[in-house]
């Protein structure tokens, strides 16, 4: 049985080359994340081309996810990597000079006062403002860690209000549409309007990329239900979320966010520090393996590697550890979830999942235009893997993010439901394979799934005889 939970890996200096990308796909990567906090449009274009080429070469469905910066405040003007020890004095200035570094939102310096705390690098380095003047803050390190250019800055008590999309983000979204990005992760979402703004920019530039709302602010937690009405998926961005909401609240918040995404049949990614030790070690810690396993039991569609594959020393090994942990955990996963079925499509999706537990079949196959029915079937977490059948070329890669989707088959549009099934079966070499198929009474129209059908060997022969004789 193929692995159900998907792996998202961040591409970076350690992995952005054809040989390593090929190794990562073979190791189990389903989605590559391009972090637009770094790099240029041309470098990201080249990365996309390398990913597409490697995926095509291996015959794998692989999605590309753009992660836009949002209004995240980051370190700017720091030369090299700086090791910070507890008690060190640091200088944060509006303009970097000498030993002083700056940030991407220097106006913040005016709003901070002596005694305020600042967190760097997902909260791994904590400092306190010891003194200040008009241009510079003098900071005292309260913890040890590593800092470098581009690392994030959080001030939990500041209450700074900033738009979710900067001008850079808007430019990056237009670029994503140009090069055919499959998924877009929007940072620091606080409302459905933030998601809608990103969607509108993509749509205006002829892109139907799925928008993944990163949940990492208190405002997002407050407005989660309305965000779920507009987003195509969620990411539990535990780095900034842990800093903003407090480390000790994270486990419960993770479970709540995932539960709500599952109820809405939206794919959800659990991210940040899942295998941090493997940046410098070929082996994970026991706690990290437990963290990954718990993300599976919570209901994650995907788990994500960040620095581990972007700049880590053992990126391929990290993916292999992730894949093995997922496969082992899935043996004990409580399959066939139950939710209230308020929509017609949900009822048919649930019926297919239920039938698959008692009727012998290779997989649940679903003919889908938008992917909505695929996500509904996935929502109920059937033990059988899911085959997606679609004539929507752009949907093919997106579904690489969705729990349980093993493969996507492309077919041509047709008004005959049996002809659509025939096109699918022609791509299945084993005539003995049986499938539970869901489809709509109005083929090619979104939201019209209205039947569940079993295709066995006899039915397959009848279908083939009908259409082969027409030739």
Explain this structure.
By secondary structure, the chain is α/β, with parallel strands linked by helices. The chain folds into three domains: about 5-70 and about 165-330, Alpha-Beta Barrel (TIM Barrel), CATH 3.20.20; about 75-155, Beta Barrel (M1 Pyruvate Kinase, Domain 3), CATH 2.40.33.10; about 345-470, Pyruvate Kinase, Chain: A, domain 1. It is about 35% helix and about 25% strand. It contains 17 helices and 22 strands. The protein has helices spanning about 20-25, 40-60, 110, 165-180, 190-205, 220, 225-230, 240-245, 250-265, 285-300, 305-310, 315-330, 345-360, 370-380, 395-400, 415-425, 455-470, and strands at about 5-10, 30-35, 65, 75, 80-85, 90-95, 100-105, 115-120, 125-130, 135-140, 145, 150-155, 185, 210-215, 235, 270, 300-305, 365, 385-390, 405-410, 435-440, 450-455. The strands form four sheets. It has an eight-stranded parallel β-barrel with strand order 1-2-3-13-14-15-16-17, surrounded by six helices. Strands 6-10-9-8-12-4-7 form a seven-stranded antiparallel sheet, with helices on one face. Helix 5 links the parallel strand 13 (about 185) and strand 14 (about 210-215). Helix 1 runs parallel beside helix 12 (about 315-330) and helix 13 packs across helix 14. The protein is elongated. The model has no long low-confidence stretch (mean pLDDT about 95).
